[in-house]
Every structure is written in structure tokens, then in C-alpha cells.
Amino acid sequence: MEDVDVNTQWLMSYVLGCSRSELALKLPDLLSDEEQARWDEAVAKRIQRIPLQHIIGTVDFCGIELDVNEHVLIPRQETELLAEMAWVTATSMNQASVLDIGTGSGCLAISIALNAKDSAVHALDICPKALKVARANASRHGLKERITFHEADMRRPLPLGREWDLIVANPPYVPSRDIKDLEPEVRDHDPHLALDGGEDGLDYYRSLAGNLLPCLRAKGRLMMEIGEGQASGVAEIIGCSGGRVREILPDLNNVERIVVASAVNS
Q1: Can you tell me the mean pLDDT for 18-35?
Q2: Residue 138 in 3-state DSSP?
Q3: Which of 45, 50, 76, 199 is the 20 to 30 A CA-CA neighbour of 12?
Q4: Residue 126's domain spans which residues?
């Protein structure tokens, strides 16, 4: 479960229509009948383990407010590391061509486009309802013309017919048997399509490595988020697919979380 105090602050700012920083000024006032009703409804939903982000309808990702719903994975703090690495890498390149695989809410594509302003960003997802959310988030941040969205299956060869400087992906990596043991907020509300990584959690990495490594330019990079304990398995997959692991980086909890790969000769 998330921190109770943090949940309470977010829910109250939602009810009062203010930012969390303004709560101290608002809270001494009694709630109106309408605000009390909204508060009671929000608390009841949270007690039912409906995710906070679904109740308030948004999530903060790298300082960017994004709409989320049941059709997209709620972006996690761990993925912010991948986003920052990606936009730093893209910024170091000249007019980088960037592809976000399995974009969901659009969190990676949007954060890269906002921070690597000369990059050409494309984003792909198999779910049309997820793409609708991602497009709305892109428009919200003035990126409608900067990000090109594609409906396609990440497990298939890319249909886009071009080479890429940077490809990023946060694929499904939960082993199928473990989904039943996830927190209710995840198990019952995140789309299983964005969670289920197959028997060992590595199905998508096999497809991504085989299909994407040949699509990288000479100095291109493939960056992927991985689950806990999966680094060696993903590294082996990359090697068997003709790639080279450049880095494996930990998250804030010192869990190996990001794999950076390239083609062997780049």
C-alpha cells in the first residue's frame, strides 16, 4: 500500500481542487456539503484498493501531470530513471530519432520530447484505448505535432521502415504465475496486457531484442526497464540476439532496473 499520509494529501487536494502545497491554507475551512461528499466517495474507493491515480485521474511523472485510466499502466517511480536516461541520451545526439515501445500513457515519449527538444519521437502501442490516452496527454503538453503514434504489436517486427538512434521500452515483465500475488491496486486495475510477461517474465524481451537490435543505427541504443532478478536473463537474450549489453543500472532501491544495449559493432 502507498503511504497513508501521501494518499490523504492527494485525495484532499483533489476534493478541494487545489495543489498539495495549498492544503495548509485550505484545510482550516470546513468542507462544504459537496466537498464532504466527494471526500467520502474518494475515501470509499481507496478503501476498496482502487488506485489513488484512478480516483484523481492523473499521475505525476518526472514533474509532468498525465491523465491515466484503466487502459494504461500507472507509471512507476522506477520508470522515471529510464525516462531521464533516455532524454539525456537523446539530447547528446543530433536530432535523434526516438521510438517508445509500448507507450501506454505516453509517459516516456512525452518526457523525452519535452526534454530533448530537437528529437523526432515516435510511440507505439497495441491498444487503441491506450493510444487515445497517450495522444490526449501529448496534446495536453503541446506535443501533438512532435510525437507520432502508431498502433502495432511490440512482439512483431517494426512496421515503420526506418533506423533509430534510441529505442526505449518498459515491457510487461511479471511472470504469469505471479500476477495473482500482486497488490490489488496493480492486479485488479492495471491492464494485464501491460503486466504479463509470460511464463518466466521474459517473453517480450526475446521479441524486442530480436526485432529491435537490427533497427538501431550505428551508435544507437536500446534501453529497457526490467523486473527484479531479470538482469542476467535479459543480458543473455541480448547476447543471443546479436547485441551487446552496455550497462545495467540500479534504481533508487539498488535493484538492477535498466538494461542499455546496442548492436555488437556499435
Answers
A1: 72
A2: helix
A3: 76
A4: 70-263
